[in-house]
Amino acid sequence: MRALDDIVVLDLSRVLAGPWCTQNLADLGASVIKVEKPGAGDDTRGWGPPFLKDPETGAQADAAYYLAANRGKRSITVDMATPDGQKILRDLAAKADVVVENYKLGGLKKYGLDYASLSKINPRLIYCSITGFGQTGPYAPRAGYDFLIQGMGGLMSVTGEKDEFGGTPQKAGVALADIMTGLYSTIAILGALHQRDRSGAGQYIDMALLDVQVATLANQALYYLVSGNAPVRMGNGHAAVVPYQGFPVADGFVIIAVGNDGQFAKLVTELGHPDWATDPRFTSNGARVTNRAALIPLLEAETKRYTMAELIAALEKRGVPCGPINTVDRVFADPHVQARGLQKTVPHTQQGTVPSVASPLRLSASPVSYDHGPPLLGEHTDEVLREQLGLDAAQLAGLRDKGVI
User: Fold this and answer.
1) Which of 51, 160, 271, 369 has its CA 20 to 30 A from that of 25?
2) Strands 322-324 vs 252-257: parallel, antiparallel or unpaired
3) Total domain count for the chain?
4) pTM as predicted
5) Which residue in 27, 114, 178, 211 is the catalytic one?
């Protein structure tokens, strides 16, 4: 058994936030039906390089970006702009447990695929809409993109080097607003499924990238709300913990993350200055935060005497949290990452297998399985429409001739 193997998800989303949510549901065992436009499909199929290549023709195939968020799903192609396509999707929604979509505000109403329409034919339906700004408020009609949301939601204001070091606001190297919205959407859907078990009724879920980005400012948001002062960019430093940043070594940088005064004493003892642990400027975390400008250069002068391997080994022996700043290739070469099995290979109809990254969800009784890779465009159209709607070969051929599927 898998945790959600009795749940059917109709996935009308594309790009990242929605597909990330539905990939989580697929990892947990849900049957996810990914609906794509005939002949085009999810935009991310073309977001490369790098691309896969057709092993027979050498032609460009799906992009790595698409592979990252679509494991475990079945793809069908349906033109929802046609009446026949709309009927197919309504019939599928009538049998589904969950619909996930990320169209602009009201974008699906004209097709009869909005929550108000679908809930009438399936009162148990859980319908999750993902937009940039939500269903209400002055920005609701706007399109929302991760980069815009990272800026508008405050993340970029606290990411990047300090002003005095020539820094500018920076976005994260991963589309975090999209990813986090996908995760929160997954949580909301699981909560709604549990509620349905008790009430028998579905419900509507309004997810907004901006809401998620503001919520996940976390301590930085509360720093402002409590103090009235807007937090600023700290580079790799921490606003409230010192030392907690990257330090230069002979061959790169090492992160040192001192969480308490005992760890600080161990750090400075290793660096040859145990007296710093009793220096009134540095005896407590609060004092170290106040005197950050004095302490950090002292530490940097000592860490430069070590190589990365030497300093990490020495600090690990003393129980001081530390680690390298790895490039992505070094991440997958790390022995712990390998021991945890974070790099996976999943089946693929065209390629045989393709690389993937393991889900971090580790359930003892209903584990994630990796028996289905990302689908080809429309790979499962006939299979799903036969299975879910009982369409026969002649009906499928007719729909295909009309360009509906």
Assistant:
1) 51
2) antiparallel
3) 2
4) 0.92
5) 178
**CATH number for position 281:** 3.30.1540.10
Cα–Cα dist 89/110, whole Å: 13
What's the CATH number where 69 sits?
3.40.50.10540
238 pLDDT band, cuts 50/70/90, is confident
What pLDDT sits at residue 51? 97
354's tokens: 């393709």
Our measurement of the distance from residue 390's CA atom to the centroid of its chain's CA atoms, rounded to an integer in Å, reads: 35
Over residues 44-72, the mean pLDDT reads: 96
Angle between helices 393-401 and 381-389 (to 10 degrees): 130
- Euclidean distance between CA atoms 344 and 282, whole angstroms: 46
* pLDDT on residue 338: 97
pLDDT of residue 164: 79
In this structure, is residue 32 part of a structural domain? yes
The answer to whether residues 203 and 273 belong to one domain is no
90: in domain: yes
Strands 352-357 and 343-348: antiparallel
Tokens linked to 107: 């974008």
**Known catalytic residue: 178?**
yes
